[in-house]
Write a structure and sequence with these properties.
There is one protein chain. The chain is α+β, with helices and mostly antiparallel strands. The chain has two domains: 11-194 and 360-449, Zn peptidases (Aminopeptidase, 3-Layer(aba) Sandwich); 198-356, Alpha-Beta Plaits. It is 35% helix and 24% strand. The protein contains 15 helices and 19 strands. The protein has helices at residues 11-26, 37-50, 119-134, 139-142, 159-165, 223-236, 245-257, 263-266, 275-280, 285-294, 331-344, 367-379, 396-400, 417-420, 430-449, and strands at residues 55-59, 65-69, 78-85, 105-106, 109-111, 143-148, 172-178, 184-186, 189-198, 200-209, 213-214, 298-306, 312-313, 316-325, 349-356, 360-361, 383-390, 406-409, 427-429. The strands form four sheets. Strands 1, 2, 3, 6, 7, 8, 9, 16, 17 and 18 form a ten-stranded mixed beta sheet that branches. A four-stranded antiparallel beta sheet has the order 12-14-10-15, covered by helices on one side. The longest helix has 20 residues, at 430-449. It is globular. The structure holds zinc ion (ZN). Zinc ion (ZN) is lined by residues 85, 117-118, 151, 178.
């Protein structure tokens, strides 16, 4: 049997080093808005340069920096781009047990906004570059490390801007990025997810128009009432189940690993007619919610704006709806679906504006996917890496549009990590941080530097 990681690496000292870097990275407040990612980028740059890895901080506008390592042979294509975003979402400080920018270390966990999403991945990737360099490989010739701005608000000042202004610096065959996933462990093994696809985010504004007037004289063309009906109709609507290719692969693997019911019965999830009934039997609410979101389009009202004064019926108001659509569907088609729902509920005069892209997908029969899968198994013999489609969007979509396969990893196989992402009390375990470094280091050493048959 092949020896595992016979590299002479002192993993307990790497663990301490990585934990210390993550603590310091979390202490840099990169809440977006405003972002202030340059502070994070400068911090990462100093660590890379200490290893002798050349890199630069590039700002899309003041304060909005990204850091990218440079290929020595300019214009060449890297094997793998190690990507993560520097910015984090806002934190409601008073609701956290430990302050979100403290980097507090408690019982083997590191706390802070970004601990999972996704500064820990940034540290795993950075340590992978550093370890390869220390081992005498030259990672900068095969790999790009990129930590970018603005992912949480759509990437306009991060990946999207970089691809427009510096496309040559991001040329690569494959990408490792965040996975926005989950995982679990039971006696069948440990499920790790590799994000190979994501639903399209189509942000939508519906504007309602009615007859303005004095509220002391009611009439039946009040746009606020039309909007209320629409919000209720969208919340109540049962979008049909549709099983797409990436979700089918995930559900087949999931059926074999879960213990809520016999595998054969769980495969009923693949049947659009039986799917809802089988979902009800998954006793874990987080899993049930996520799987439900993977097999349907969704339209969730999140913002309403109406009126200016109690005694004035406004002539116009609007609501915003977060729509997530499945691979194979177009925003235009989903707009028609929404209009049909509103018309069926008498929502008056309205217009729908929808901005968004289409869902993106990467193949999972590539050489790099297999190397990654093997690396998980080498470091956790119980591991099963399943391909997964995330309901949420990441920067991977920009690269997938260019035909570059992206694999989103989640090193922490827990079900509640997904609730801590963007929620309160975000934290990650030092053990999983080290596990992630081992998996990535091993996969990239194998893929980029070992002679492969
Ligand atoms: Zn993220």
């Amino acid at each position: 049997m092949k020896a595992v990681m016979n590299t002479g690496i002192n993993w307990s000292s790497i663990e301490k080093e990585a934990a210390d870097i993550l603590v310091r990275y979390l202490q840099i407040n990169t809440t977006n808005p405003p972002g202030n990612e340059t502070a994070g980028a400068v911090f990462l740059k100093s660590l890379l340069e200490r290893e002798g890895i050349a890199c630069e901080v590039i700002e899309s506008k003041p304060g909005r920096g990204s850091v990218i390592t440079g290929l020595k042979a300019s214009g060449s294509t890297a094997d793998v781009l190690l990507l993560h975003h520097i910015d984090v979402v806002p934190a409601e400080t008073d609701k956290w047990l430990h302050p979100p920018f403290s980097g507090a270390v408690i019982d083997g966990d590191i706390w802070g906004r970004g601990a999972v999403d996704c500064k820990s991945l940034g540290v795993m990737e950075l340590m992978t570059m550093a370890l390869l360099k220390r081992q005498g490989f030259e990672p900068e010739k095969k790999l790009i490390y990129a930590a970018t701005a603005d992912e949480e608000i759509g990437g306009a000042w991060g990946v999207q801007w970089l691809l427009k202004h510096h496309p040559g610096k991001l040329r690569t065959r494959y990408i490792i990025n965040e996975g926005v996933g989950m995982g679990f462990s039971n006696s069948n093994g440990t499920m790790y997810l590799c994000q190979v696809a994501e639903k399209a985010a189509c942000w939508t504004r519906i504007t309602f128009r009615g007859r303005p007037g004095h509220a002391s004289v009611p009439h039946d063309d009040n746009c606020v009432v039309h909007m209320a009906r629409a919000v209720q109709a969208l919340a109540d609507h049962g979008f049909p189940v549709k099983i797409t290719a990436p979700v089918e692969k995930f559900l087949r693997g999931f059926a074999g690993m879960q213990q809520f019911m016999p595998e054969k019965e769980c495969l009923g999830l693949l049947d659009p007619v039986r799917c809802e009934a089988v979902l009800e039997r998954i006793a874990e609410p987080a899993l049930r919610r996520i799987i439900a979101a993977l097999v349907k389009n969704t339209a969730v009202p999140t913002l309403i704006a109406a009126g200016s004064k109690t005694n004035v019926i406004p002539g116009e108001c609007y609501c915003e709806v977060d729509c997530r659509i499945l691979p194979g569907e177009m925003p235009e088609g989903f707009k028609i679906t929404l209009a049909k729902i509103l018309d069926a509920h008498g929502c008056g005069d309205y217009t729908i504006e929808m901005s968004g892209s289409i869902a993106s997908e990467s193949p999972c029969d590539t050489d790099f996917y297999r190397v990654l899968e093997q690396s998980f198994i080498r470091h956790d013999p119980t591991a099963r890496m399943l391909p997964y489609m995330s309901p949420g969007a990441t920067d991977s979509r920009f690269f997938r549009q260019l035909g570059i396969p992206c694999y989103g990893v989640q090193m922490e196989p827990s079900l509640d990590a997904i609730d801590r992402i963007h929620g309160h009390n975000e934290r990650t375990s030092i053990k999983q941080l080290t596990f992630g470094i081992k998996v990535l280091y091993d996969a990239l050493k194998t893929f980029c530097f070992d002679n492969r048959a």
